[in-house]
């Protein structure tokens, strides 16, 4: 066996000699480190304060929804006994499940119709060159600035008197099949970030405008479509004004946002049940946003196409 040479034997810490002393930290470096630490504390303190500002009201609602009837009238912040049965009582309220079904119909159908009708218009405004394109875009922007309350009287007369659809949600759902100004504008801004080379390459391969839109543009525009869909879903889910105008005379057509007002009036002293109903109304929106927040943020910031 070959013996290890003297050069190959590792030196111990004692044999290698004393370690070289570390250079002293200068006053400038100490100041820089202290400044960086203070900046880190300041930034995170503001972040924590902002988070508490938004989270604490929701925590208060949840805790109140789990209290007993007597404890809600006290100053206690934490339930003595966790009354999970409050949520069962809310679902047992006559009409609450009907409000859920109506809200799902309104939000689901309205979102699907808005996205399907807004995409072709946004694509034409973003990628087509035609006379009057800028004027069309200005009309879309002007519709965004028009409050719905301005035209509510003629719209109500049209849907209620001429079409006899008062007491239903169809006056709110059907118009969404003709596009939404905000959705069109947001999608148009996102589609502008898609390079025209992709569209030109698809047309060279023999794709028409419709096939190019379906096969090339839509897969690349998923973040923008997701943002538009979420905006429309949140709007329809929380809409109070529309159901109040068209469906108030028919309790069978109420949505959660409008029915919650009636629920609060019927349980004005039962704050635990009112808060439980509020949590059940808010929960779907929070869950949807939690799972779709990445696509939502990417679509809103209009990041465009990544290479």
From TrEMBL:
Database matches in InterPro entries: MetI-like, MetI-like_sf
Region (Disordered): 1-28
Signal peptide start-end: none
Bilayer topology term: Multi-pass membrane protein
Keyword Acetylation: no
Protein localization: Cell membrane
Top-level taxon of origin: Bacteria
Domain ABC transmembrane type-1: 100-292
Keywords: Cell membrane, Membrane, Transmembrane, Transmembrane helix, Transport
Gene3D superfamilies: MetI-like
GO cellular component assignments: plasma membrane
A GO BP annotation: transmembrane transport
Chief subcellular location: membrane
Record's keyword annotation contains Protease: no
Listed transmembrane segments: 40-63, 104-125, 137-157, 169-191, 212-235, 271-292
Protein family: Belongs to the binding-protein-dependent transport system permease family.
Protein known as: Sugar ABC transporter permease
